[in-house]
Specification:
Number of strands: 10
Mean pLDDT: 83
Largest sheet: 8 strands, antiparallel
Number of domains: 1
Radius of gyration: 17 Å
Strand order of the largest sheet: 3-4-5-6-7-8-9-10
Order of helices and strands: HEEHEEEEEEEEH
Distance between the termini: 6 Å
Number of helices: 3
């Protein structure tokens, strides 16, 4: 499982830097099950903004997550009453870190935000600085990936690639939930 997560992180890194151009039809109205994805994305943005605005009022649980990265990490869950609304995971490496936020509603995962930070030298070398960052946003409707933004551009991948990313993200969610429950096995 740990190797799978590391491969997913590596794959995400490679996908972030693969040089895909924005979709030629990015302004086109796309539908999922007859529903306008632009409207869905607008609602999803409002929903994760609302979660973040109320985050301080949620019950919080943080656990260490050793073994996911070279320099360790931690996973934090946020619950509204008994409902999981957010997971924040951060994993550190010698030359960077990966932070991922997963957002949930009654249908399950509805949004994931991923930010990778790359340093100009290892963290144990005095004076290291942030060299660059890469961000990806994944929008879900009823557990189905409906939009993938690489930075601010719509990610262009094959339908198979889209499904593979969707599956990898759901696998990562399971791993993070297992870490939080103490059930994760390296």
């Amino acid at each position: 499982m740990m190797n799978l997560l590391l491969l997913n992180i590596l794959g995400l890194f490679l996908n972030c830097h693969s040089g895909h151009a924005p979709a030629k039809n990015a302004g086109t109205v796309f539908t999922v099950n007859g529903i306008d994805t632009a409207a869905l994305v607008k609602k999803i943005r409002a929903d994760f903004t609302a979660v973040n605005a109320k985050q301080a009022s949620y019950k919080k649980k943080t656990v260490n997550a050793p073994g996911f990265s070279a320099e360790g990490g931690e996973v934090t869950s946020y619950h509204r009453k008994s409902d999981l609304v957010k997971i924040h995971a951060v994993f550190y490496g010698e030359t960077g870190k990966v932070e991922t936020d997963y957002y949930f509603n009654p249908d399950g995962l509805f949004f994931q935000y991923n930010k990778e930070t790359f340093y100009d030298k290892p963290i144990y070398v005095k004076g290291f600085k942030v060299k660059k960052t890469a961000e990806n946003r994944y929008y879900f409707y009823k557990k189905t990936l409906i939009r993938w933004l690489d930075g601010t551009k719509v990610k262009v991948v094959t339908p198979k690639g889209f499904k593979e990313k969707e599956r990898a993200i759901h696998d990562d969610v399971k791993d993070m939930q297992d870490v939080l429950h103490g059930d994760y096995k390296n």
